[in-house]
Amino acid sequence: MGWEYSEKTKQLFLDAVHGKPGTHLGEIENPDGVGEHGSIACGDALRFTFRVERDENDPLKDVIVEARYLTFGCTSAIAASEALCCIIEDRKVTPIEALKITNADIVEFLEGLPKQKIHCSVMGAEALQAAVYDWAKRRNVDLAHLGIETHTEEEDEGRMVCKCFGMTEPYIKRKIRELNLRTIPEITGAIKAGGACMSCHHAPGGLQDLLDEVWGSKKAEDKTDKPSESFVPLITVPAGGVPAAPNKKPSQTSELSPYQRAKKIEQAIESYIRPMLQRDGGNIEIVDIKDNVVYVELMGACAHCTGASQTLKGLVENTLKAKVDSSVRVVQV
Fold first, then answer.
1. CB within 8 Å of 132: residues ≥ 6 apart
2. Which of 19, 67, 169, 230 could cysteine-pair with 85, CB 3.0–4.6 Å?
3. What's the pLDDT score for residue 311?
4. Given a cut of 90, is residue 89 above it in pLDDT?
5. Domains along the chain?
6. Is residue 28 helix, strand or coil?
7. What's the CA angle centered on 297, arms 295 and 301, to 5 degrees?
């Protein structure tokens, strides 16, 4: 499956991977700011570094003169990272001014991105913010005094909502507000949450509930005085089935016959996993199923991807555990 990338996006990607002079793939030695964002488990991660020309009297007048990135991701992740570096260097901005660069600026520079790839631009903007926060610590700049909010991984810790991509309630709610996300597809397109097994879409305390809380639906008003701990634990909904009540013993997937387990595995791969891989030009085929071990072959773009093992663990195996049986293991052949 091919993506409708703009010519500019494709050219930036090709120039970067071929190391054309003027591109930014790499890392700055002894940088003035370092920021990371993303997860190897979900196939996208970015490390962003920059160097400034220092003002000896006022750190707020430091100017970013060089930017570099290392990314573990697809065509759009590399192109978006290139775009970010170009914008920063072309504008000759201070680190504080760089915080005004948004994912929308990156998408505009690329002359558009497929909606399923918008999360790549968000990843770049987040890594930039993290790098600026790092610069501020090194230069003893009080961002709070300047009215700039900072967010740390510790602040984003909390109840896990999207288990496939490891995203918590505080983080998702923050991104819903920052990016003005109004629907579940918009959340998935922007930050990937809910894009794998999809069991968090309408589960109690899931993505729809978070949208209702943030944007003030009637459902959210009914829960205003309830602490977040009151959420019912997430329940995996079998395909075509009804979630078991929390106070009842759930059905044991271990009671499935080998034939039933195999059919559920096939259904999960066909309905959830294959579409996700095909979005990035990849595919998957089942080679064999023996008890709870699924032998698969990754194909297309996934076949030679350096993150194949992470894809198997973070997407394929975790989805099958959620949809079929927690004891399922996946082995690549």
1. 33, 35, 95, 96, 98, 99
2. 67
3. 74
4. yes
5. 7-146 (3.90.1010.10), 160-230 (no CATH), 253-332 (3.30.300.130)
6. coil
7. 150
